[in-house]
From TrEMBL:
Organism, scientific name: Callorhinus ursinus
Ribosome recycling factor domain: residues covered: 70-232
Keywords recorded for this protein, A-Z: Mitochondrion, Protein biosynthesis, Transit peptide
Domain of life: Eukaryota
Family: Belongs to the RRF family.
Listed SUPFAM superfamilies: Ribosome recycling factor, RRF (SSF55194)
Subcellular location: Mitochondrion
Gene transcribed to yield this protein: MRRF
Role of this protein: Responsible for the disassembly of ribosomes from messenger RNA at the termination of mitochondrial protein biosynthesis. Acts in collaboration with GFM2. Promotes mitochondrial ribosome recycling by dissolution of intersubunit contacts.
Matches recorded under Gene3D superfamilies: 3.30.1360.40, Ribosome-recycling factor
Keyword Transit peptide applies: yes
Protein name: Ribosome-recycling factor, mitochondrial
Length: 233
C-alpha cells in the first residue's frame, strides 16, 4: 500500500514537519533468480496507487499485446501445413506504400498442394507480390502466369520443419525487440517524474516494470518451446 509520512518526532518526542515522502508497502514472494540460484524478491505494486506517476495497466496491456501478436503470427505463418490464411498478411511494398497481400490479391486454395493469388485487380503489383512471398521466410517459391501467382506448398520434410523452427525463433526475437521498446518507453516516462516523487518509489516502479518485462519474456520463450515441439513432432 502506498502512503505518505508527513512528519517525524525529535528526540524529545515533539512533532517536526517534513516533506511528504511516499512510502510503498508491497507484498512479496520468493522466487529463484534465473540461473543464479539466488533468492529474488518480487514487487507487487498496486497500480492504482502509482497511476499519477505512470499507468502500469497501460504498460501491462502493451506487453500483453506483444504476446498476442506473436501468438497470431505463429498461428498464421508458422504451421506445418501452409494455408491461404498464411499468406494474408505478407507485406508487399507498392507505389502506394506497404500493403497486406490480401488487400491487393485474391488468395484461394486450388488444391492441397497449391495456393493461387489472383492479382487481376492490381496487376502492376504482381512482381512486388511475388518478391514478398519469396522473401516471407516461409520457404515458398511462387510462379507467375500473367496476373496469377501460383504458390506450390512445400512438402513436409525434416528440412521444412527445421526451417519453420528457425522462422519461429526469428519471430520470437522480433517480439522481444518490441517488448524492449515498451520497457524503454515506460522507463523514459518514469524518469520525467523523478523530481516529483522519492527515489525509493521510482526504484520500486522500475523494478515492477522490469519484472513485468521479464515475465513476458518467459512467456514468449514458453510459447516458442511449445511451437518448436509441435513443428518437430
Amino acid at each position: 500500500m502506498l502512503k505518505t509520512v508527513s512528519g517525524r518526532q525529535n528526540d524529545r518526542g515533539q512533532s517536526m514537519a517534513s516533506p511528504a515522502v511516499p512510502v510503498c508497502h508491497f507484498a512479496t514472494k520468493k522466487a529463484k533468480a534465473k540461473g543464479k540460484g539466488q533468492i529474488q524478491t518480487r514487487v507487487n505494486l498496486n497500480a492504482a496507487l502509482v497511476e499519477d506517476i505512470i499507468s502500469l495497466e497501460e504498460v501491462d496491456e502493451e506487453m500483453k499485446s506483444v504476446m498476442e501478436v506473436l501468438k497470431d503470427n505463429f498461428n498464421k505463418t508458422v504451421n506445418i501445413r501452409t494455408s491461404p490464411g498464411s499468406l494474408d498478411h505478407i507485406t508487399v511494398v507498392t507505389a502506394d506504400g506497404k500493403l497486406a497481400l490480401n488487400q491487393i490479391g485474391q488468395i484461394s486454395m486450388k488444391s492441397p498442394q497449391l495456393i493461387l493469388v489472383n492479382m487481376a485487380s492490381f496487376p502492376e503489383c504482381t512482381a512486388a507480390a511475388v518478391e514478398a512471398i519469396r522473401e516471407s521466410g516461409m520457404n515458398l517459391n511462387p510462379e507467375v502466369e500473367g496476373a496469377l501467382i501460383r504458390v506450390p506448398i512445400p512438402r513436409v520434410t525434416r528440412e521444412h520443419r527445421e526451417m519453420l523452427v528457425k522462422l519461429a525463433k526469428q519471430n520470437t526475437n522480433k517480439a522481444k525487440d518490441s517488448l524492449r521498446k515498451v520497457r524503454t518507453n515506460a522507463m523514459n516516462k518514469l524518469k520525467k517524474s523523478k523530481d516529483k516523487v522519492s527515489e525509493d518509489t521510482i526504484r520500486l516502479i522500475e523494478k515492477q516494470i522490469s519484472q513485468m518485462a521479464d515475465d513476458t519474456v518467459a512467456e514468449l520463450d514458453r510459447h516458442l518451446a511449445v511451437k518448436t515441439k509441435e513443428l518437430l513432432g
